[in-house]
Amino acid sequence: MHEQINQIKSLVSDASTIVLLQADNPDADSLGSALALEQILGDLGKTIHLYCGVDMPAYLKYMKGWDRVTKELPKTFDLSILVDASTMTLLEKIQTDGQVSWLKTKPCIVLDHHEIVENPVYFSTVTINQANLSSTGELIYSLSKQLGWNMNRAALEFMMSSILGDTQGLTNVLASAQTYRIMAEMIEQGVSRPSIEELRRELSKMPQSIYKYKADLIKRTTFDKTGKLAIVSVPHEEIKAFSPLYNPAPLVQTDMLQVEGVEVAVVLKSYNDGKLTGAIRTNPNSPVAAKLAEHFGGGGHKNASGFKIESNANLEKVIVELEAECLRLLQELKS
Ligand SMILES: [Mn+2]
User: Fold this and answer.
1) CA of 83 to the centre of ligand 1 (A)
2) Domain limits of the chain?
3) Model pTM greater than 0.85?
4) Cα angle, residue 109 at apex, residues 106 and 110 outer, rounded to 5°
5) Distance 225 CA to ligand 1 centre (A)
6) pLDDT over 70 percentage in the chain
7) How far is the CA of 84 from the centre of ligand 1 (A)?
8) What is the distance, to the nearest Å, from the Cα of residue 308 to the centroid of all Cα atoms in its chain?
9) 226 alpha carbon to ligand 1 midpoint, in Å?
10) CATH architecture of 2-201
């Protein structure tokens, strides 16, 4: 660990232009981490570029600066830092458009906190992946302290957004005593959690059409014979119609887990080209999310994970397989 920190110190000090990378599944932690590092490294006099292969989802737009994230790597840079991911599987865009060959000519730092990592970033110079931390935001906070990097107010606010995102407002098992200590330090330095929450609420309000669509998703939710697994699937037409306005999964997934007996909630999205994605969330007492996603070639955390089937996905088959594997994992957990 000490050695890695020294490596990071010298890589950053040798670089003048740094590109901060998010994987193809941006969330509050990845965006918060990228924007925090933009502040911290910007204050060190670095020129910063923000990259993500996909558009920032609407629900993240409460974080000021999200619109600085672009889909292009800069023409020149000295160092890249990948936040909140350490797998090539979630860096598909940068591989399909050939930018990865440019990326790997420069040193790369990977900062992450994921339990299971398949297909790790093969060109990374130094990787810190600490699954015991709540979020990459928490990791960056600790690193910055150890490296003596100044964290301005905006940086602290972004890291707090990271922590709140991954811990679901400090309510899940990822929030450790250390996470609370860090939150307290941030508050002492002037960060207002109520202001962050209010901004997020205000900018994540849904249009009336989405409110009504939520009712459709709830009506279409199915439960397996044990009542432990709730599934809803979203066809391509609905992805096209509603996803630009609001991501369907977070719209219903928390409610699905609030149904008596339900331990696992899955939202499936089917695309016309045969692609299928699954977002998995579980109750705290049924931490099978990462393993369930792994079964389909995906990964993630104990209580939140995802997978993607690239082509020829058969929705009915996936559902049958999900039910069987979910049941098996839940039984395995009990014994
Ligand atoms: Mn994270």
Assistant:
1) 8
2) 2-201, 208-334
3) no
4) 130
5) 33
6) 100
7) 5
8) 15
9) 31
10) Alpha-Beta Complex (3.90)
